[in-house]
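Q: Predict the bound structure with adenosine-5'-diphosphate.
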Amino acid sequence: MASLRFSAIQETLNRQAISVDDTMFRSEIFAKNVFDHKTMRKLLTKDSYESIANAILKGTKISRTIADQIAASMRDWAIKQGATHYTHWFQPLTGATAEKHDAFFDITKDGVVVEKFGGDQLVQQEPDASSFPHGGIRNTFEARGYTAWDPSSPAFIYGTTLCIPTVFVSYTGEALDYKTPLLRALNVVDHAATEVARYFDKNVKHVNATLGWEQEFFLIDSALAESRPDIVLAGRTLLGHASAKGQQLGDHYFGTIPSRVLGFMRDLEQECLLLGIPIKTRHNEVAPNQFEIAPIYEEANLAVDHNSLVMDIMEKVSHRHFFKVLFHEKPFEDVNGSGKHNNWSLLTNKGVNLLSPGKTPMSNLQFLTFFVNTIKAVCEYEELVRASFASASNDHRLGANEAPPTIISVFIGSQLTAVLDELEKVTDGKLSPKEKTDLKLNVVGKIPEILLDNTDQNRTSPFAFTGNKFELRGVGASANCASPMTVLNTIVAKQLRDFKKGVDVLIDKEGMKKDDAIFNILREYIKESKKIRFEGDGYGTEWEKEAKKRKLSNHKTTPEALAININQSTVKLLEEMGVMNATEIKARYEIELGAYSKRIQIEGRVLGDIARNHVIPTAIRYQNILIENVQGLKDIYEEEYRKPAREQLKLIEQIATHIEKINENIDVMIESRKFANKVSDAAKKATMYCDEVQPYFEVIRYHCDKLEMLVDNELWPLSKYRELLFIR
Ligand code: ADP
Ligand code: MG
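A: Predicted complex:
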């Protein structure tokens, strides 16, 4: 019988690209499956439409009667489009999306089939969700949590199911999902940014945070992926010798997209367009088999939902094309891992991007205000930013000379650095008319609309200003963007609130003019946040030393990075901003640590299994062949056999040594795991998994990979890197 590996390779050779009907015009199908403004305006009564429009814009409540009307229209529209079921769609803290489908119809006592989906079903549901992570918030004996409709993210039909985006909270109101704190953070940043924006334009009513994510991923042929227990169970390879050719020639990046992949991309884009997800860009990434898609940016809550949805769709579409999609941050050693850059900005209801330099000195002062406040916020809370994208899988990617380091810094480019340097020199107190004119004309007024550094971005920076937005680059490909977006928007909100207070004091108590006050506060902020600004090479060891001098944090592992989340200052901040209370913070912390330990535990088990049950038996089989060969040589050459059998004897010994090392290390790894499992404190347990279990992975892998290079290719049971990484 051919090994799984060889039949998988055979299968991939017969693969054909699946063509996708793309005769439909993009604009024609865009958001066809979404209950969006356009559809609602058409189908809802004027009252209902206004009510939901207000709920979206201002967060006002929707009455039960109106909810009933909306539900009825939504149901009729969905059934007409072919939907048979509905679900409350939410993002529990497992990282995946959750849904439980219910049919639209119900059967009455008399056996009559009726369609049942009203305001009650739309607004609130009580999923039996006792097995979702809750970090102790909900005791299982009162497994009550409920999902509640989020009207700000439109309902959509996926497959034959009407999906209603919802928040997921405990019966006592604590957040059990990603969306709830995000919505709270977006709400506070809206308030804080609106207040500050009104210094420059009295008519600003709302400010939305915007997010444009760039999703990187790997595609692996599904048959090959199935032949690897590590890919199936851990989402990454735990062993595998590097391929002779990897990414060193740089021939994959922006190269021609392989036809099988193009088929997948078209199919995916079509699904996305139907769901109103504006995917715009697709290209090859640096590593072989690595790709990226990116949409046009959207309001952050919607963008986060869309990213979760896209990841889900990608898995489904990939099956149709016989691919497995990998979101793991480091699925293969020696080639780049996958990230998810979060491009972020603030947009007023009048369509003004507050992080975009303008044409006039006044609009540039507005730009500088938001720009400097963001830098200050990141400086104050750099550790929280770092923690917002900490995970077991992302630990492998950060700081590995392919992704930003674990030290948070801000890159702004030489032109803006020069502007901030000038602003730093502004006189303390009231400015003379001459100084103010000078400043406005020669500094603020000279900020070019197009910044040169735009085209020369410092790719090594974890938080870079790229012309009209900041780009947060530490986020991992498998993450839900809600966590980093919650942190970023909360800290910016806090900073803007403090800024407003400071400026108002100078105006009211010191009698300063508004722009004098703004210049004064900005000057202080620029000085105070200098340490976070770094324009150099973020990958170098020099920077690590320098960052230490600047007292910037450098948490290389998740257990270390997460500690800040339960720090008193963090609890104070999140409570003050109304984003999370102490119970929610503690629960989330425990959940994240628990997830970390479980991940490493699973990887340890899988590695032990593969090494012991796949690699060692294969090595022994090959060793037996060698022994047979040596035996044969002995028969022929008798006492003289050692010379012709020299290499084989060496091989037999090498194999024995590697087997010994593998076994030895697996034994101690298992012991360490047992030890760690006995620890009940979540932080201690995670630290043990990190420091005392994980380190064995590398040694075990090393010896397995050596064996891969020694053992007969015909016998090797696991698909090799060179087979996995090059889609034919
Ligand atoms: P790259 O960073 O790869 O050079 P772009 O700068 O063109 O690519 O855009 C990357 C992402 O940034 C896209 O998803 C885009 O929609 C998003 N983006 C652009 N402007 C904004 C903005 N004002 N707010 C949030 N995201 C934005
Ligand atoms: Mg980018």
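A: The chain has a mean pLDDT of 92.
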